[in-house]
Amino acid sequence: MTELKIAVVGAGVIGVTTACELQKRFRNANIKIVANEFFEGTTSYVAAGIFCPGTSFSGPTDEITEKWVKDSYYYWENVKDSNEAGTAGVIEISGYMFSSSIPDIVRNSFMEKVCPLYRAATREELKICPGNWKYGSYFTTLVTQSSLYIPWAFNKFKSNGGQIERRKVESLESLAKENDVVVNCTGLGAKFLCKDRKIVPIRGQVIKVRAPWLKNFFYGDYDTYIIPGVDSVTLGGCRQYQSWDLKVNKYDEMQIKEKCERMVPSLARAEVIGSKVGLRPHRETVRVEKEMKNFDGKRVKIVHNYGHGGYGVTTAPGTALHACDLVHELLAGNNKL
Ligand SMILES: Cc1cc2nc3c(=O)[nH]c(=O)nc-3n(C[C@H](O)[C@H](O)[C@H](O)COP(=O)(O)OP(=O)(O)OC[C@H]3O[C@@H](n4cnc5c(N)ncnc54)[C@H](O)[C@@H]3O)c2cc1C
Question: What residue segments make up the domains of the chain, in order of their start?
C-alpha cells in the first residue's frame, strides 16, 4: 500500500492546528508543514489570542459559522482543562466590554451561546473604569497565547512524525507531484497563491507590557483593548483596512498607550516589552473549501483554510476540523465540485 502524503502550506495558528488535526484523523499519513515564515515571523504571534469572534465573522452559512465557533471553544476549553494548559498557553479569563455609544456593541450572540458566563454589567461595574460608560457586559472566556501554543503544537506535530520544510511555495499545484492533498493555510499569502482579490490586510498594532496585577480583560470604544495573557498583557489597537505597512508606527503607539491608560490608569507603571504589527488576513467569508485542478496531466486535490481576519486564534480548531472533513471527502472520491 502506498503511503498517504499531505502537505500543509503555512505555519501560523491555522496551519499548525490543521496539521495536528490531520495527524489525528489520518494516523498513518506522512504530513509535512511547508512555510517561509515560522513562529515570530507569522501574524499569529502578534495576536492577543482572546476567544471573542466579532459579530461579523462569517463562514459560508450561519450554521457552519456557529459550528466552527462551538467546536473551537470546546477544543480550547479541553486544552485549558488538561494538564498541558500551562505549556500550551491557554487560560480562562473574565472581563468587561464597555461602550458609551450603542448597546449592541456589548452584545455578541456567538459568545452568549458558548461562554460559561455572559451577562450585562451592573451600574456599579460601569464605574470600574474611568470614562462615561453607558453599556457593558461581563463575560468569561479563554485566551491562547500563540507564542506558547504554536511551539507546543509544533512539538506535538514533530513527535508524531510530522515533517517541516522552510521555503516559499510559488504555486500550490507544484506541491501536487509529491502529495495526495495540499492544504492551503497561508493567510494573507493566499492573495497571491490563489489570486484571491477578496482577501485584504487589516493592519493592527499592539503594545506588549508586563502588568501581572491585571487579572481581567477590558474592551472600550475606538478599538481599545487590554488583554492579559500568560506572561504579558496586550494593549491595542487599530484596524487599518488595506494597509500593508509592517513597521511600528509611533503615532499608533501613542494613541494605544493613551487610550489604554485612560481606561486602566495603573497601566502607566507597566513595564513595556515592545510594540508589534500584524496584518489580519481578512476575507468577508472565511474560505474553507475543497478544489480540484488539472496540473501537468494530474488531478490536484487542494483544501483551502484561510481568511480568518482578526479571529484566527479563536476559530483555528473549528475550521481545522472542517478542513480535515474536506480532505477526507477528497480522498474518498466524494468530489462534488
Ligand atoms: C494586532 C492583532 C491582534 C489580534 N488579536 C487576535 C485575538 O485576540 N484573537 C484572535 O482570534 N485573533 C487575533 N488576531 C488575528 C490572528 O492573528 C489571525 O487571524 C491569525 O494569526 C491568522 O493565522 P494564519 O495562520 O492564517 O496566518 P499567519 O499567522 O500569517 O500564517 C501564515 C503562514 O503562511 C505562510 N505562507 C504564506 N504564503 C506562503 C507561501 N507562498 N509559501 C510558503 N509559506 C507561505 C507564512 O509564512 C506563515 O507561516 C489578531 C491579529 C492582529 C494583527
Answer: 5-331
